[in-house]
Amino acid sequence: MDKYSIQLIPPRGGDVKQIRVEGSRLKLALFCVAAFVIINLAALGLNIYFGVAWYRKSDLVRSNARLSRRLDFAEARAESLENIVGYVVELTNQVRDMADLPSIRPEDLAYGIGGPQLDYDPNEPLIVSKAGDIDRKLDSLLLATRRETEALADVYEHFENKRKLFVHTPTIWPMHGYVSSGFGKRLDPFTGVWKMHEGIDICARKGTPVRATADGRVRFAGWYHGYGKTIRIDHIYYETRYAHLDDIKVTPGQRVKRGDIIGTCGNSGYTTGVHLHYEVRISGKPVDPKKYLYPEVVVD
Predict the structure, then answer these.
(1) Cβ(137)–Cβ(71) under 8 Å?
(2) By CB distance 3.0 to 4.6 Å, which of 104, 150, 235, 247 could disulfide with 216?
């Protein structure tokens, strides 16, 4: 059997010691040392692996905790938004009722806020499920706000049309004074024959300012047959006429606002004295101007 000698030499001289070891025992010893090193290295590797995995898991747990808190906050804000949308829905219905608009059908308001997840997966993480619920709620709220925006746009359009109608409707007296002749049939002061008087005559001193009774565009400004100096204003839905003026202060095509001075009182044309002849017409047909005059309302 092979034997191996191991010599131990002291560093500063002295007797050399020699140890004889059988080959099989040496190999066994080397094998044990190698196995010990390998086992320790494996243990060290496993410790490192599981340590990193634990750290990653801990970091993921912390991240999930932070994300969960943020989702809770987002869910609370979504619920607040849901309450606001509910208030807007109620307010919209009230405004539509004030505007005499038809009520919104209940099915139009059923935008499905909330509700469980239909495709629920029991293996899905809770945090993912919560995020999905919030996402669906926000989608529902988005649809609801779009619907309410359309409803409010209808209300705005309604009131805008009302405003447009109001500003273009004659409502004020065109001049300070008193009515000397009303609307309807009367004896013509020149011929003595009964004739339709298509407006009213308002008496005042010569030069008294005459004002537009509504917003509009000047259609005509000049001499007009027996009316003398005359102004005709187109108000889209109406037309007003101001005759027997002393002075004209507007030109054809000019836009005017209710209360703007457009001329002065006079006695041009066929008249028996100083006054303003004022007419209101709808689709070319004369109507009683007094129906379009607020009592004693004249813009100064």
Answers:
(1) no
(2) 235
Identify whether the C-beta of residue 22 lies closer than 8 Å to the C-beta of residue 5: no
Task: Please provide the distance, in angstroms rounded to a whole number, between the alpha carbons at the two ends of the chain.
Answer: 137
Q: Is residue 186 part of a domain?
A: yes
Of 167, 189, 218, the domain-final residue: 167
- How many other C-beta atoms are found inside a 10 Å radius of the C-beta of residue 24? 11
**68-72, 102-106, 122-126, range with the lowest pLDDT:** 122-126
Residues 238, 200 within the same domain: yes
pTM listed for this prediction: 0.60
What is d(CA 247, CA 250) in angstroms, rounded to the nearest whole number? 10
Quote the CA–CA distance of 129 and 71 in Å, as a whole number. 11
Domain count, the chain: 3
- CA atoms of 21 and 37, how far apart (whole Å): 22
Q: Over the stretch 228-261, which tens digit does the pLDDT of each residue have?
A: 999 999 999 999 999 999 999 999 999 999 999 9
Task: Report the SS3 class of residue 200.
Answer: strand
